[in-house]
Automatic annotation (TrEMBL):
TNFR-Cys repeats mapped onto the chain: 30-64, 66-107
Domain TNFR-Cys intervals: 30-64, 66-107
Keyword Ubl conjugation applies: no
Disulfide cross-links: C43-C56, C46-C64
Signal sequence, start to end: 1-26
Protein keywords: Disulfide bond, Signal
GO function terms (MF aspect): tumor necrosis factor receptor activity
SUPFAM superfamilies referenced in this protein's UniProt entry, alphabetically: TNF receptor-like
Name of the protein this chain belongs to: TNFR-Cys domain-containing protein
Example GO BP: inflammatory response
Length: 178
């Protein structure tokens, strides 16, 4: 008996939605910008930075509320606010732009790290493997450019000089006696 009641309830909901969509289409309801059709009525969307608190009814319009802290909505909508991206500082990420009610937080990877492609860009970063570097800013890891120089010294001994170019501003050098 409970299964039959659940089926009829589900069937009724689907039938109602079909009726709303069909009647809206058949009536040729054209809503203004930042409105959405609901039944035979056009309802207002919520502004950027807001979420829908309650849907419009035959007698009332959509009720909107500001997005909570750490949530945002970048455009007019009749949905919920989205959760802001989290910059994982333990995984080489730093915040570049704060989360606001109308825009998401922006993260980037610090030098020596590259973005983990499974997450929002720069929110989780991977350490570059040995022999590779990244200048940061969500760039991929690249192989080091290696140089070996032999430098004469006043005592006629030779030293081996290794350098690793990290980027145009940084070079790591190691000098060892032969």
């Amino acid at each position: 008996m409970m299964v039959a009641a659940g089926f009829y309830l589900h069937f009724s909901a689907v039938l109602f939605l079909l009726l709303v969509v069909t009647s809206t289409h058949c009536l040729g309801l054209k809503c203004k910008e930042h409105e959405y059709p609901f039944g035979a009525k056009c309802c207002k969307d919520c502004a950027p930075g807001e979420r829908m608190r309650s849907r419009c009814t035959a007698k009332t319009d959509t009720v909107c509320a500001p997005c909570q802290d750490n949530y945002f909505s970048p455009e007019h909508n009749h949905n919920f606010c989205r959760s802001c991206t989290v910059c994982d500082t333990k995984k080489g990420s730093v915040e570049v732009k704060k989360c606001e009610k109308t825009s998401d937080r922006i993260c980037k990877c610090v030098p020596g790290y590259m973005p983990d492609g499974r997450y929002a860009p720069g929110s989780v970063c991977l350490l570059c493997p040995e022999g590779f570097y990244s200048p940061g800013g969500n760039e991929s890891c690249r192989p080091w450019t290696k140089y070996v120089l032999l430098i004469p010294t006043p005592s006629e001994q030779w030293f081996e000089f290794h350098s690793v170019a990290i980027n145009a501003q940084v070079m790591i050098c190691t000098i060892k006696q032969q």
